[in-house]
TrEMBL record:
The lineage of its organism: Bacteria, Pseudomonadati, Bacteroidota, Chitinophagia, Chitinophagales. It comes from Filimonas lacunae. Pfam families: Glyco_tran_28_C (PF04101). Gene3D superfamilies: Glycogen Phosphorylase B. This is UDP-N-acetylglucosamine transferase subunit ALG13. Signal peptide: none annotated. Belongs to the glycosyltransferase 28 family. Keywords: Endoplasmic reticulum, Glycosyltransferase, Transferase. GO terms for molecular function: hexosyltransferase activity.
Amino acid sequence: MIFVTIGTQEPFDRLIKAVDDMAGVIKEHEVVAQVAHTRHVVKHMTCYPFLDPVGFNQYFNKASLIIAHAGMGTIISALEKGKPIIVLPRQLQYKEHRSNHQMATAKYMEELKYIHVVYDEALLAEKVDYVLHQNLKPLHTIGAVASEQLLSELNAFISS
């Protein structure tokens, strides 16, 4: 199952339309999306305007692939849970957000090789096909708590 989330603050029609079009073609994967205030009329996937935390976590945990905006909460959740994630960052030029911070986030996380990124929604289906054929391995995982090394270095810094 592929789970799509766009956050809860703003619509993201560009991503939802691209995923919906793709879902009409790849029938072997169920696609479920949390679509918030999106105006696009969905035809090929199951969608919910909003999910409570329990429902959201159930879909997130069940998913073999996450597709999302470049929100840090979603990215961190995918890394913690070992889920491969593809992000399409919201862009100021399309009035999808108040700044281009999602572009900066996506570029930085991509440079670290933590996430898959598409900057053009027309390339989403191709990237999904690529990731699905990589045995759905995440590029990187992180723990849910700070590492011993980080804690030790913070402790040393505070003590000095």
